[in-house]
Protein backbone atom coordinates (compact mmCIF):
# COMPACT_ATOMS: atom_id res chain seq x y z
CA UNK A 1 0.00 0.00 0.00
CA UNK A 2 1.44 3.42 -0.89
CA UNK A 3 2.51 5.58 2.01
CA UNK A 4 0.04 8.32 2.80
CA UNK A 5 2.99 10.54 3.64
CA UNK A 6 4.50 10.16 0.17
CA UNK A 7 5.62 13.17 -1.84
CA UNK A 8 2.64 12.75 -4.18
CA UNK A 9 0.21 12.72 -1.25
CA UNK A 10 1.84 15.87 0.16
CA UNK A 11 1.44 17.62 -3.20
CA UNK A 12 -2.23 16.60 -3.28
CA UNK A 13 -2.67 17.86 0.31
CA UNK A 14 -1.26 21.25 -0.71
CA UNK A 15 -3.45 21.38 -3.82
CA UNK A 16 -6.64 20.64 -1.87
CA UNK A 17 -5.77 23.02 0.97
CA UNK A 18 -5.65 25.90 -1.53
CA UNK A 19 -9.22 25.27 -2.75
CA UNK A 20 -12.23 27.27 -1.54
CA UNK A 21 -15.15 25.68 0.28
CA UNK A 22 -17.31 23.72 -0.46
CA UNK A 23 -15.01 22.45 -3.25
CA UNK A 24 -12.30 21.45 -0.74
CA UNK A 25 -14.57 19.25 1.40
CA UNK A 26 -16.26 17.68 -1.63
CA UNK A 27 -12.93 16.73 -3.22
CA UNK A 28 -11.49 15.60 0.13
CA UNK A 29 -14.46 13.21 0.32
CA UNK A 30 -13.80 12.00 -3.24
CA UNK A 31 -10.13 11.48 -2.36
CA UNK A 32 -11.12 9.39 0.68
CA UNK A 33 -13.46 7.32 -1.50
CA UNK A 34 -10.70 6.75 -4.05
CA UNK A 35 -8.29 5.70 -1.28
CA UNK A 36 -10.86 3.11 -0.19
CA UNK A 37 -11.53 1.88 -3.73
CA UNK A 38 -7.86 1.96 -4.82
CA UNK A 39 -5.73 1.41 -1.70
CA UNK A 40 -2.83 0.16 -3.84
CA UNK A 41 -2.70 3.26 -6.07
CA UNK A 42 -0.18 6.08 -5.82
CA UNK A 43 -1.35 9.64 -5.34
CA UNK A 44 0.29 12.19 -7.59
CA UNK A 45 -0.29 15.33 -9.60
CA UNK A 46 -0.90 14.72 -13.32
CA UNK A 47 -1.85 17.49 -15.74
CA UNK A 48 -1.85 19.89 -12.78
CA UNK A 49 -4.54 18.02 -10.83
CA UNK A 50 -4.68 15.38 -8.08
CA UNK A 51 -4.66 11.85 -9.46
CA UNK A 52 -4.57 8.21 -8.41
CA UNK A 53 -2.26 6.12 -10.60
CA UNK A 54 -1.34 2.46 -10.95
CA UNK A 55 2.15 1.73 -12.29
CA UNK A 56 2.35 5.26 -13.69
CA UNK A 57 -1.01 5.06 -15.49
CA UNK A 58 -3.64 7.58 -14.39
CA UNK A 59 -6.85 5.96 -13.17
CA UNK A 60 -8.75 8.85 -11.56
CA UNK A 61 -8.10 12.58 -11.56
CA UNK A 62 -10.16 15.30 -9.95
CA UNK A 63 -10.14 19.06 -9.47
CA UNK A 64 -12.19 22.14 -8.68
CA UNK A 65 -13.34 24.89 -10.99
CA UNK A 66 -15.27 28.12 -10.35
CA UNK A 67 -18.76 26.61 -10.64
CA UNK A 68 -18.19 22.87 -10.43
CA UNK A 69 -15.89 20.03 -9.47
CA UNK A 70 -14.71 17.49 -12.03
CA UNK A 71 -13.76 13.83 -12.08
CA UNK A 72 -11.40 12.85 -14.90
CA UNK A 73 -11.29 9.12 -15.75
CA UNK A 74 -7.98 9.77 -17.56
CA UNK A 75 -9.45 8.48 -20.82
CA UNK A 76 -11.97 9.72 -23.35
CA UNK A 77 -13.72 6.36 -23.61
CA UNK A 78 -14.52 5.46 -19.99
CA UNK A 79 -17.66 7.56 -19.50
CA UNK A 80 -19.53 5.93 -22.40
CA UNK A 81 -19.44 2.65 -20.42
CA UNK A 82 -20.69 4.10 -17.12
CA UNK A 83 -24.36 3.58 -16.27
CA UNK A 84 -24.64 5.00 -12.73
CA UNK A 85 -24.47 8.74 -13.51
CA UNK A 86 -26.74 10.73 -11.14
CA UNK A 87 -28.94 13.54 -12.56
CA UNK A 88 -26.86 16.32 -10.95
CA UNK A 89 -23.85 15.29 -13.05
CA UNK A 90 -22.93 16.62 -16.49
CA UNK A 91 -20.48 14.86 -18.77
CA UNK A 92 -18.18 15.64 -21.65
CA UNK A 93 -16.17 12.99 -23.49
CA UNK A 94 -13.51 12.88 -20.78
CA UNK A 95 -14.99 14.70 -17.77
CA UNK A 96 -17.71 14.16 -15.25
CA UNK A 97 -18.76 17.55 -13.79
CA UNK A 98 -20.73 17.88 -10.56
CA UNK A 99 -21.81 20.70 -8.21
CA UNK A 100 -19.21 21.77 -5.62
CA UNK A 101 -21.49 20.73 -2.77
CA UNK A 102 -22.44 17.34 -4.30
CA UNK A 103 -20.59 14.14 -3.39
CA UNK A 104 -20.23 11.44 -6.01
CA UNK A 105 -21.83 8.14 -5.01
CA UNK A 106 -19.33 5.44 -4.04
CA UNK A 107 -20.95 3.00 -6.50
CA UNK A 108 -20.30 5.45 -9.35
CA UNK A 109 -16.65 5.92 -8.34
CA UNK A 110 -16.21 2.13 -8.16
CA UNK A 111 -17.69 1.74 -11.64
CA UNK A 112 -15.48 4.51 -13.09
CA UNK A 113 -12.36 2.91 -11.59
CA UNK A 114 -13.33 -0.59 -12.73
CA UNK A 115 -13.87 0.54 -16.33
CA UNK A 116 -10.58 2.46 -16.39
CA UNK A 117 -8.57 -0.44 -14.93
CA UNK A 118 -10.06 -2.79 -17.53
CA UNK A 119 -9.07 -0.30 -20.23
CA UNK A 120 -5.49 -0.11 -18.91
CA UNK A 121 -5.33 -3.92 -19.01
CA UNK A 122 -6.59 -4.09 -22.60
CA UNK A 123 -3.20 -4.04 -24.35
CA UNK A 124 -2.49 -5.93 -27.58
CA UNK A 125 1.10 -4.75 -28.07
CA UNK A 126 3.30 -3.68 -25.17
CA UNK A 127 3.17 -4.29 -21.43
CA UNK A 128 -0.15 -5.49 -20.04
CA UNK A 129 -0.98 -4.91 -16.38
CA UNK A 130 -3.83 -6.92 -14.87
CA UNK A 131 -5.20 -5.72 -11.52
CA UNK A 132 -7.24 -7.04 -8.64
CA UNK A 133 -10.29 -4.85 -7.87
CA UNK A 134 -8.34 -2.88 -5.20
CA UNK A 135 -5.58 -1.97 -7.67
CA UNK A 136 -3.09 -4.60 -6.48
CA UNK A 137 -1.09 -6.05 -9.36
CA UNK A 138 -2.38 -9.49 -10.41
CA UNK A 139 -0.18 -10.10 -13.47
CA UNK A 140 2.23 -8.27 -15.73
CA UNK A 141 3.95 -9.14 -18.96
CA UNK A 142 4.43 -8.26 -22.62
CA UNK A 143 1.88 -8.70 -25.38
CA UNK A 144 2.55 -9.02 -29.09
CA UNK A 145 -0.26 -9.05 -31.67
CA UNK A 146 -2.83 -9.78 -28.96
CA UNK A 147 -0.92 -12.77 -27.53
CA UNK A 148 1.13 -13.22 -24.38
CA UNK A 149 4.75 -13.09 -25.54
CA UNK A 150 7.77 -12.95 -23.24
CA UNK A 151 8.23 -13.15 -19.47
CA UNK A 152 5.06 -12.98 -17.36
CA UNK A 153 4.59 -12.85 -13.58
CA UNK A 154 1.46 -13.51 -11.48
CA UNK A 155 0.95 -12.20 -7.96
CA UNK A 156 -1.36 -13.02 -5.08
CA UNK A 157 -3.57 -10.24 -3.79
CA UNK A 158 -1.18 -9.79 -0.85
CA UNK A 159 1.55 -8.86 -3.36
CA UNK A 160 3.60 -12.06 -3.07
CA UNK A 161 4.91 -13.55 -6.30
CA UNK A 162 2.98 -16.70 -7.19
CA UNK A 163 4.15 -17.83 -10.64
CA UNK A 164 6.49 -16.78 -13.44
CA UNK A 165 7.26 -18.09 -16.89
CA UNK A 166 7.71 -17.37 -20.58
CA UNK A 167 5.31 -17.28 -23.51
CA UNK A 168 6.00 -17.40 -27.22
CA UNK A 169 3.02 -16.34 -29.35
CA UNK A 170 0.56 -17.30 -26.61
CA UNK A 171 2.14 -20.69 -25.82
CA UNK A 172 3.92 -21.51 -22.55
CA UNK A 173 7.62 -22.19 -23.19
CA UNK A 174 10.78 -22.63 -21.16
CA UNK A 175 10.99 -22.82 -17.38
CA UNK A 176 7.96 -22.09 -15.19
CA UNK A 177 8.28 -21.55 -11.45
CA UNK A 178 5.73 -21.36 -8.62
CA UNK A 179 6.31 -19.92 -5.11
CA UNK A 180 4.37 -20.17 -1.86
CA UNK A 181 3.22 -17.07 0.07
CA UNK A 182 6.49 -17.03 2.01
CA UNK A 183 8.56 -16.80 -1.16
CA UNK A 184 9.77 -20.40 -1.15
CA UNK A 185 10.06 -22.05 -4.55
CA UNK A 186 7.61 -24.96 -4.62
CA UNK A 187 7.86 -26.15 -8.23
CA UNK A 188 9.85 -25.75 -11.41
CA UNK A 189 8.64 -27.21 -14.70
CA UNK A 190 9.88 -27.14 -18.30
CA UNK A 191 7.42 -26.59 -21.15
CATH class of the largest domain: Alpha Beta
- Annotated CATH architecture of the largest domain: Alpha-Beta Complex
Low-confidence stretches: none
Number of strands: 13
- Computed over alpha carbons, the radius of gyration is 19 Å
* Molecular shape: elongated
SSE sequence, one letter per element:
HHEEEEEEHEEEEEEE
Number of domains: 2
Major pleated sheet: 7 strands, antiparallel
Q: How far is it from the N-terminal to the C-terminal residue, by CA?
A: 35 Å
Proportion of β residues? 35-45%
The mean pLDDT is 94
Helix content: 10-25%
Descriptive account of the structure:
With 191 residues, this protein is of the alpha+beta class. It folds into 2 domains: 7-120, Aspartate Aminotransferase, domain 1 (Alpha-Beta Complex); 124-190. Helices cover 22% and strands 38% of the residues. The protein has 3 helices and 13 strands, in the order ααββββββαβββββββ. Strands 7, 8, 9, 10, 11, 12 and 13 form a 7-stranded antiparallel sheet that branches. A 6-stranded antiparallel sheet has the order 1-2-3-4-6-5. β5 and β6 form a beta hairpin. α2 (23-37) crosses α3 (106-121). The radius of gyration is 19 Å and the shape is elongated. The mean pLDDT is 94.
Amino acid sequence: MPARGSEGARLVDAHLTALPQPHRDTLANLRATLRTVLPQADECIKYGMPCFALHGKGVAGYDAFARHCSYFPMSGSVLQHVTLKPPAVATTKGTLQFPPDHRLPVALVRQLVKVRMAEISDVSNGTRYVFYPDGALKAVGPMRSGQLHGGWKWYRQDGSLMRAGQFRAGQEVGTWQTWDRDGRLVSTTRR
